[in-house]
Design a protein that fits this description.
- The complex is a heterodimer of chains A (492) and B (174).
- Chain A is mainly α and 492 residues long.
- Chain A is built from 15 helices and three strands.
- Chain A has one domain: Up-down Bundle (Formate dehydrogenase/DMSO reductase fold), CATH 1.20.1630.10.
- Chain A has helices spanning 39-49, 55-81, 96-120, 130-151, 177-213, 217-227, 234-267, 279-305, 314-345, 348-359, 375-389, 397-400, 403-430, 445-468, 474-480; strands spanning 2-6, 365-366, 372-373.
- Chain A has a two-stranded antiparallel sheet with strand order 2-3.
- The radius of gyration of chain A is 25 Å and the shape is globular.
- Chain B folds into two domains: 7-51 and 126-172, Alpha-Beta Plaits (2-Layer Sandwich); 54-119, no CATH class.
- In chain B, strands 2-3-1-4 form a four-stranded antiparallel sheet.
- The chains are: A mainly alpha (492), B alpha+beta (174).
- At the A-B interface, β1, α1, α5, α7 and α15 of A face α1, β2, α2, α3 and α4 of B.
- β1 of chain A pairs parallel with β4 (168-172) of chain B, so a sheet runs across the interface.
């Protein structure tokens, strides 16, 4: 024990202490070994993740950057030439761009679900994955937000969507779901970003002090900016924790409202196949389903590369898979309900659309030159296979404990959910009330390029995130871990 | 407000030592500042369950956002009347979406601003010495207790922190 009387600075006397201590397997959460680690080890493990990356990391980022570049070039062509350069034309006014928008908004939902909803329900398995899922939300919503702007054809006039005072006394139509969308998506993006940054503050302070400890002063200065003078005093914690809880409570209804509002873009229209009350819960379940699948698609490689078995344990993967399975059943039920209601409604238009989706020859898109394939038909069967049939093996624990199998299934779900969005957006517009008004939709290379670019954008941002910021919430991992006690700690 | 700090601070390895020291200090009428690597309810309990006024800020600005969310569409719809299919000009049901979004947005923005301002105010009211700020293990694996006191009380609190197994105790003579 050192007792020093000083007037100015303190001499660091603790740097020689051991930082890695013995692990007591009997403490902490039974499914997550990291909760048995001491505080110092959690710091060390997280700092280690942010060390200089392997050259293969740069190759990976380069690959994503190439996809982004393809998207950027396609975007430039699209903006320069105009919306006529896409496959969007009467009567199919919504094509790949709105499909991409709905898909990416859905992907974003898992982050808020994990960070806010599971925080309120005190699900301990969320601790290791919520920061990455939250980052995914921010990146996915940023990606999604680009598409409606692009879809307008003149993105430089996007400010017209905002109700600002103007000399023409014209205001946006607040009765339109498209105006609701502007408010819903911007609110969701703002709250997600604030929630994400708020959670980062204590971790940035940890990184600041760890960088100082390791003599990396430039890094320490950068982290210090984001740490905002955080010291971890009780006065700071009390306001922080209460604010964080409120943010979680505010973000929770957003999980359910945002995709409901996106679904009303469709459901408020009178188009057969869209005009249905099931859309809001159907979209929300689909969003959570696809978002969690994307979380696994991204985090399983992260787990392997960074050797995070103690953090993203089989227990965590199992829990996520169980939620995926549950939402898969909701989505499958919604598919069946749509068909039932179309039949039960007695409306010939509804029945026709739901006949055309699985059986109709609605559009031909030649993949091989001589074998015409109906694109929406392909979308329908891929949707059913990937979202309803492919997740069935997850019922078995053996499959849930097989990371390769989980990764493949989640990849298939991502594909299936994109096609589900296309199935909803594209097929109804191709066959509305009057055969005279029927049409076909083929995506152009520009649309395909922008879609690929959106994936490049998302994955590149995520790759940069895992090496620039702590991809796990260090503060919450410590909170979940057993605290250092001189006496026996009975409470957990 | 003087920026000079006068008092005693110590570091602790164990949480139970820390909470016992806090309880002893509070019995003597001292409200210490506690530093910890993560939030611990044991510390809150020892400190007497301090409360934050942040929820009131969220509630007030959420209500304000709700008011704005309903009144903005109502005012704009009345400013430029656009009858659609005989539907009401000021329609509550569709404006509820805007009301809801503005409630959440205002509550979130002002919760963030509010907690930031509260943290700044509390940090100014309860300063900690520069040396404690620069002690790198509070963000790692050590707990800390800071006691602001007069020079005549240095020994009293230094001994108290040592009694509860403080690893290091420092006296800051303001």
């Amino acid at each position: 024990m050192a007792s020093t009387t000083i007037g100015g600075t303190v001499t660091e006397t603790s740097s020689n202490r051991p930082f890695r201590e013995e692990i007591d397997e009997h403490k902490g959460h039974p499914g997550i070994r990291a909760t048995t680690f001491n505080y110092a080890r959690i710091n060390d493990d997280m700092v280690e993740m942010l060390e200089k990356p392997h050259p293969s990391y740069f190759l990976l980022v380069l690959g994503f950057l190439s996809a982004l570049l393809l998207g950027a070039v396609s975007l430039a062509i699209q903006v320069d030439v105009g919306i006529g350069n896409s496959g969007i034309s009467h009567p199919i006014a919504w094509g790949f761009y709105i499909t991409d928008f709905v898909f990416w908004i859905g992907i974003g939902h898992a982050g808020t679900l994990i960070s806010a909803v599971f925080y309120l329900t005190r699900a301990p398995w969320r601790t290791a994955i919520y920061r990455s899922a939250e980052a995914m939300t921010v990146f996915a919503v940023m990606t999604a937000g680009l598409f409606p702007l692009l879809h307008t054809g003149r993105p430089w006039l996007a400010y017209w969507l905002i109700p600002y005072p103007n000399e023409r006394y014209l205001w946006v139509n607040f009765k339109s779901p498209l105006a609701w969308d502007v408010f819903a998506v911007t609110t969701y993006m703002s709250v997600s970003i604030m929630f994400f940054l708020l959670g980062l503050v204590p971790d940035m302070a940890i990184m600041r002090d760890e960088a100082k400890r390791r003599g990396k002063m430039l890094q320490a200065k950068i982290y210090a900016i984001f740490a905002m003078s955080w010291r971890g005093t009780n006065h700071q914690w009390v306001h922080f924790m209460r604010g964080y809880l409120i943010f979680a409570a505010l973000a929770t209804p957003l999980v359910f409202s945002v995709h409901s509002i996106v679904s009303w873009d469709f459901a408020m229209a009178s188009i057969p196949g869209w005009h249905t009350t099931i859309f809001a819960p159907y979209f929300v379940a689909g969003a959570i389903f696809s978002g969690l699948a994307m979380v696994m698609t991204v985090l399983i490689p992260v787990r392997v590369v960074f050797r995070l078995e103690d953090y993203i344990s089989y227990h965590v993967v199992n829990k996520v898979c169980q939620v995926i399975l549950f939402t898969s059943m909701i989505v499958g039920y919604a598919y069946a309900t749509e068909f039932f209601i179309a039949w039960y409604s007695g409306s010939p238009y509804e029945r026709a659309v739901f006949y055309f989706r699985p059986f109709g020859h609605m559009a031909t898109w030649s993949l091989t030159g001589d074998q015409p394939v109906s694109f929406p038909l392909l979308a329908f069967y891929l949707m059913v296979f990937c979202n309803v049939i492919a997740p069935i093996p997850l019922w078995r624990k053996k499959v849930r404990n097989n990371l390769v199998a989980v990764w493949i299934i989640c990849g298939l779900i991502n594909v299936g959910m994109w096609f589900e969005r296309f199935n909803i957006v594209g097929s109804s517009l191709q066959r509305d009330f009057h055969p005279y008004n029927w049409g076909e939709y083929w995506p152009t290379l520009v649309e395909v390029g922008i879609t690929i670019g959106s994936f490049g954008f998302f994955f590149m941002l995520f790759s940069l995130f895992v090496k620039a910021l702590p991809p796990m919430a260090i503060m919450e991992l410590k909170e979940a871990a057993e605290p250092p006690m001189r006496k026996e700690h009975h409470e957990h | 407000m003087s920026t000079k700090f006068s008092g005693v601070w110590g570091t602790f390895e164990y949480l139970d030592d820390t909470t016992e020291a806090i309880e002893e200090l509070r019995k003597k009428g001292v409200e210490p500042t506690v530093l910890s690597p993560c939030p611990r309810h044991e510390i809150d309990h020892a400190l007497g369950e301090p409360q934050s006024p942040v929820p009131f800020i969220s509630l007030f600005f959420g209500a304000l956002g709700c008011l704005i969310g309903y009144s903005l569409p109502a005012w704009t719809a009345s400013d430029w009347v656009l009858p659609v299919g005989g539907k009401p000009i000021v329609a509550i049901a569709p404006f509820t979406v805007i009301g809801f979004e503005m409630t959440i947005l205002h509550a979130a923005i002002f919760t963030l601003l509010g907690l930031t301002i509260l943290i700044i105010i509390d940090s100014l009211k309860n300063p900690i010495p520069k040396a404690a700020q620069e002690y790198l293990r509070f963000q790692r694996d050590r707990f800390g207790i800071v006691v602001r006191c007069e020079a005549s009380q240095y020994t009293l609190y230094e001994d108290l922190l040592k009694k509860y197994q403080a690893e290091e105790v420092y006296v800051e003579k303001g």
